[in-house]
Amino acid sequence: MVKKKSSKIISLPQELLAFPPGDKRSPDKIMADLNRLLAQQNFESEADLNKFMQELMASSGGYVPEAVPQSALEEAQDIMFQAFETRNRRQRINLARKALTVSPDCADAYVLLAEETARTPAEARPLYEEGVKAGERALGADFEEFKGDFWGFHETRPYMRARLGLAIVLVALGEREAAAEHMRAMLELNPGDNQGVRYSYLGLLLDLDDRPAIEKLLKKYKGDWSATWKYSAALFEFRKSGRGKKADKLLSDAISHNPHVPLFLLNKKRIPRQLPPYYSPGDESEAVQYLIDGARNWTNTDGALDWLRETMTAFG
Length: 316
Hints:
Shape: elongated
CATH superfamily of the largest domain: Tetratricopeptide repeat domain
Number of helices: 16
Radius of gyration: 23 Å
Number of domains: 3
């Protein structure tokens, strides 16, 4: 959409963009370059924006040209884009530290340092906390305007990466309520949930047995077809009402979607030491991804594994 002239925030429809295979820049870097170019324009209408895009892409052979950073933060973010594409760990760390000397508001620099230098969750925590603060400073007064579509603007992504990292670290440190609050807030900022926060959040809520929040979350994403949603909904119904027609149907639907989950939970298969980098619906890889956050909720629910075992037997 086209924002008012007075706003520096520009959200560009994704269909206007093409990321050619030969372009080595990340999508975030391409979006950053494009937004810098667009920020220098004054569009009166959507048609003006489309015309500019067509002329830009035609003149550059279908590529988004690199744009000169207009602020210290943009310069620091460009350094981080370089760091993300660097394979050498020491170079990545040095680039992150360099970015912070250019702008202390560079949240991604703190995220990288947390990932690359922290040896324990306790060491990672202050880095992620600084990343969240840096992201808030960088967004400033525009923070409220981004709400509801946070991931849709490239400026917000470093903040969201830092906040998710902090939430994950808090879980590891046993501060589950604080972690759940971060995840709840992130889903309010970005209901589209591009980061998949809802999956860890649902597992955490089941761990906390926060039933009102679980019901609200299941309802909010009721169209979710994943193993996480199906097995979690079945387990939640079992906790509420025990075995019964509704719980049995939910569990049968979950098993039909992904029959690998019970095999792991019932120790008929071992979870691989190396977690899959991605997963496919209904596949063993999806089961492994679900069990990272979901296994403990089955083992901590009285009678749940017996119910699962008996249901699997009925499946043959």
